[in-house]
């Protein structure tokens, strides 16, 4: 069903039509509706099932209903249902992880990070990403000796690494020796952005035998909890830029890019390492923005090339994230869907306008136009699932208003 929700919806609809008393078929029909982003219909069906089956201790039904209400935007009901699921099946880490996602969306950061730590336990995450092979004990936030050393492993996508790498800065106050293991594509950028005393290592070249000089390991996205700095405002580095572009490349790209301002980079689709339903938008949806006069648009899309038109596509000659960072350092604004480029630009301190899907990501919350993660970011969210036209209309109006503002794009 996860990969073919429309087929599942059609088959289950016929089954329910013939036998509406089949609660299991209606349950899975509601799941299919959730995956199809038909959240009002999904939650109505879940409500009916929960009412009819109130006496049954069905943890899975409550967990699936929680996801539907979360995507609809009713976070209070979603969290209550998820807690019920945990109460019925306390040994199931997937339910606790889902509770963590909802808590993070609500800004209940401390509780959210506690449950988010369940992401590696006992379920199918290994099909997407395997935990690191190491014999080192996992650091749990306890005091350590003056000879201790910590290996921090980046995880999930490039965007997660770029957003949370700043937390590694907080570990050098505790551990005299720190190694940060990152994807090779980010190594140079992260190395330049870390403090002295933090060794940055390419993930593809790091093995368990490399851990001999260290005493503990930790996963990157556990650090907000382990360092007791759960809120975005408590992230090491505060609101200042914490990523650093190569100054030589910045100068090189400044010579290559058009001299007139404002220069505006844009991204309309994310990478494929993390599949997020509804995150990407059709390039055609951006046309009302791209035709605005007196603006110089620059594509920052890594895996799709533009042909023809007046938009500059410099990444055809870019060699790495270092080039992308240097290009962004020369821009006045980056407009992007929720992808690594948005985190890169915001981490560099450049103004970012985030084009956000209706369901949102836990890190952005719901209904927010600003975020504590990045002071330089504005968020434009779909009013309805899939409605990119409304988002672009709002961006166009904001662009027109910003052109005469002293703050411009911030």
Explained architecture:
The chain is of the alpha/beta class. It has three domains: 5-127, Tetratricopeptide repeat domain (Serine Threonine Protein Phosphatase 5, Tetratricopeptide repeat, Alpha Horseshoe); 149-234; 247-402, Rossmann fold. The chain contains 15 helices and nine strands. The chain has helices spanning 5-18, 23-35, 39-52, 59-72, 75-88, 93-105, 109-116, 158-164, 187-193, 223-226, 247-256, 287-290, 321-329, 340-347, 388-402, and strands at 149-153, 177-182, 198-202, 216-219, 263-267, 296-299, 333-337, 352-356, 377-381. Strands 6-5-7-8-9 form a five-stranded parallel beta sheet, with helices on both faces. Strands 3-2-1-4 form a four-stranded parallel beta sheet, covered by helices on one side. Helix 12 links the parallel strand 5 and strand 6. The protein starts with a helix and ends in an 8-residue tail after the last helix.
How would you state the average pLDDT, rounded? 91
Categorize the overall geometry: globular
Task: Return the CATH topology of the largest domain.
Answer: Rossmann fold
Number of domains: 3
Please, how many helices? 15
User: Helical amount among residues, as a percent range?
Assistant: 25-40%
H/E topology pattern: HHHHHHHEHEHEEHHEHEHEHEEH
Describe how the helices and strands are arranged.
Blueprint: H1 5-18, H2 23-35, H3 39-52, H4 59-72, H5 75-88, H6 93-105, H7 109-116, E1 149-153, H8 158-164, E2 177-182, H9 187-193, E3 198-202, E4 216-219, H10 223-226, H11 247-256, E5 263-267, H12 287-290, E6 296-299, H13 321-329, E7 333-337, H14 340-347, E8 352-356, E9 377-381, H15 388-402
Helix pairs in contact: 1-2, 2-3, 2-4, 3-4, 4-5, 5-6, 6-7, 8-14, 11-13
